[in-house]
Every structure is written in C-alpha cells, then in structure tokens.
Amino acid sequence: DGGITQSPKYLFRKEGQNVTLSCEQNLNHDAMYWYRQDPGQGLRLIYYSQIVNDFQKGDIAEGYSVSREKKESFPLTVTSAQKNPTAFYLCASSTSGTGGPGYTFGSGTRLTVV
Amino acid sequence: GESVGLHLPTLSVQEGDNSIINCAYSNSASDYFIWYKQESGKGPQFIIDIRSNMDKRQGQRVTVLLNKTVKHLSLQIAATQPGDSAVYFCAERATDSSYKLIFGSGTRLLVRP
Fold it and tell me: Does residue B2 sit at the A interface (CB-CB below 8 Å)?
C-alpha cells in the first residue's frame, strides 16, 4: 500500500541534544512538508521541499534543519537551538503544482524533552 | 497567522443530528480550501476540498460551503456518528509557487451518544 511513514512514534530528547525524525513516502509525490502541532492548536509549517535537493523555510524554521537527498525521504533534525521542542511533529506529502491540493499525512512523531 | 490560546472551540452534538463546523480564512486569493479530520494522536485525514470558483461541494455525508464574500468556509456533517468525534481543521492553499497549505486553529467535535 502507498503511504507516508514517520518514525519513531515517540521520541525523548535530553537538553542539548540533536534528534532526527524520519519521514518516508512511497506515493511518488514531489512535495514534502514538516508541520509542528502544539496541544490544542493548529499546524504550523517548519520546512517544505518541492523537489529533490531543494527546500524552503516555513513559518517556524528556527532551530530545525532538513535535507532532501531522495524523493522518498525528508528527515527533520531538531537541534539544540530549538528552545521548546516538545510537540507533535507531522510530515506530509503532495503532488506539487496543478494537481489537487490534498496532503497525505503521516501518523506523527511525539517529541518530548526530558 | 498563528493560532492563539490553548483550548480549541468545541461543538457538542447529539448522535444523529447534523453538525456544522465553521472556519474563517484570510486570503481571498486562495484557490483551494480543504477540510481535515484529526483523531487523537494521529495525523490529519483529508475529508473534502472545494475550488474557489465553487460555492458548494458534496461528499458522502459531508458538504462544504464556501462564501467568498465574507471569506467563510463551513463543513456540514449529516447524521453525526460517534466516529465523527475528532478535531476538524480547515486549510487554504497558498497562491504562490509553494502551493503550501495554511491551516486554521481547529474545532473539536464531540458526539454525545
């Protein structure tokens, strides 16, 4: 079945550590996105990529980094510079451009600072 | 812009009744509007979308209405079921080359048995 897979489901980070969240899709989608969701709030865009080897900052990129070396993969690194990283992280993919606008979302990674 | 507050607005309905969830959007130039459903601890699921040149679109048990004059979007769910309990988000698609989605802050739907 085609889909988008995020791992791990739960992640714990110590103060000062970098952690990397995985996102893989087999939908042959060009575009991939990372969103952050805080309790009781909507989704805020961290980074997005419309093509391999290219990505752009979203609204809250500070303290995060990404790479897009393969079409299928868009990992997100939460660096020690992110002062409040505890949140639910969602990865999504879509056909970019003139196709329908719907994203396919992964099931999320819940990151907690301990 | 960013959503504010820690508490989502909540709509409580009786099982079997119709539900109407509302959303105000900001960019009159957006070309697509989408509704997502998110259950606790899961990623959002696509429900229905509507192009900006339409006023109404129907799916299975759901209808989306778009009022561009007042920049308002609504989702109607017919014969609401317990499985409809979730948080519902509206989203608008950016009109620049990014095609990124901008999400609203969400509404929690609670279905009483």
Answer: yes
The whole-angstrom separation of Cα B99 and Cα B101 is 7
Q: Suggest the residue from A43, A49, A110 to mutate for an interface test with chain B (most B CBs closer than 10 A).
A: A43
Nearest one of A21, A16, A72 to A46, comparing CA atoms: A21
**Shortest Cα distance, chain B CAs vs residue A21, angstroms:** 15
Rounded CA-CA distance B36/A80 in Å is: 32
b (16+ CB within 10 A) / e for B44-58: bebbbbbeeeeeeee
Q: How does strand A31-37 pair with strand A87-94?
A: antiparallel
What are the Cα distances from residue A61, in Å, to A112, B55, B97? Answer: 18, 35, 19
Chain B residues whose CB is inside 8 A of the A33 CB are 100-101
pLDDT tens digits for range A44-86: 999 999 999 999 999 999 999 999 999 999 999 999 988 899 9
What confidence tens digit (pLDDT) does each residue in B41-57 have? 899 999 999 999 999 99
